[in-house]
Amino acid sequence: MNVWSSVEFMYPYVLLGLILCIYGAWRSLIKRKNTNFLIVLPHAGNKTFPKTLRTKLYPYLPVLYWLALAFMFIALARPRLPLQEEKVTSDGIDIMMVLDLSSSMLAKDFSPNRLEACKLMAGEFVQKRYNDRIGVVIFGGEAYTLCPLTTDHQVVVDLISQINVGILADNTAIGMGLATAVKRLKDSESASKVIILLTDGENNAGYIDPKTATDLAVNYDVKIYTIAVGTTGVAMMPSNIFGHGRDVPTRVSIDTELLTYIAESTNGKFFRAQDNDGLQEIYNEIDRLEKSKIEQNVFKRYSEYFRPFLLTALFLMFLSVLLQNTYFKNIQRN
User: Fold this and answer.
1) Radius of gyration (C-alpha) of the chain in whole angstroms
2) In terms of pTM, does the model score above 0.85?
């Protein structure tokens, strides 16, 4: 690609001066072509001398001056080559992911179990949200902020991958988990604040009722997507909360009515996931529903090209003066 085809001028109106240069050069040529020039020889008494190459070229000497002036106008117009870059600034979304760590998350109706499937899907979801701040709250019988809002998504993914059942008291404090996430979002200046609540049980612990936490979310304009994970009835689970021991059939239940209430009250949406593929599709749908508003500001870094034109102009002016006072010094009009 020809570089010069991409050159633009900072002050293009200065190029109007080229019209003056073209007119001036034309006038000089017309005027001088109609004039006879002779070489003056100091040692000869007769001033008449046949025309030579020097006298034939002399009428074109003013062209150097006008050409130099033309290059000067081009330099003043500031030719430059834009090296275009794209800076993306986004009206991102603040998202708190609230994950249940009760022992029932070890149920094996997901592969390899509910918790591991949720960790994998949540990590993939985080990596898609390039422009958002994301944080994580975990809850069992109590709630804990695992990661505050951050744009360092790799840190979020790493922390999610390390969580396990047993690091918190074994119960399901949905209200505490929600309230903790709302607290992290309440002072956010983001245009959109979202909580993704993932649980497989019923609220049975904590001193904050889920409906009270929902009211807090409504008050701070926080939208909540709720995901009920797992089948209902009986699921195979390890015999202790650390995932050890033989698998035994265990009765499990999910308060879908509460989760639906939380989602609808905050203009969110309730989802039901009963296998890995279903959970994957839910995260994909939330990703589609909560798109960041991205505004692309194009800025340009320029490579300046006025110097070659300026140097050429100076050289032509110097050459014009030099020739006038050396090679064409002894020429005069007849």
Assistant:
1) 40
2) no
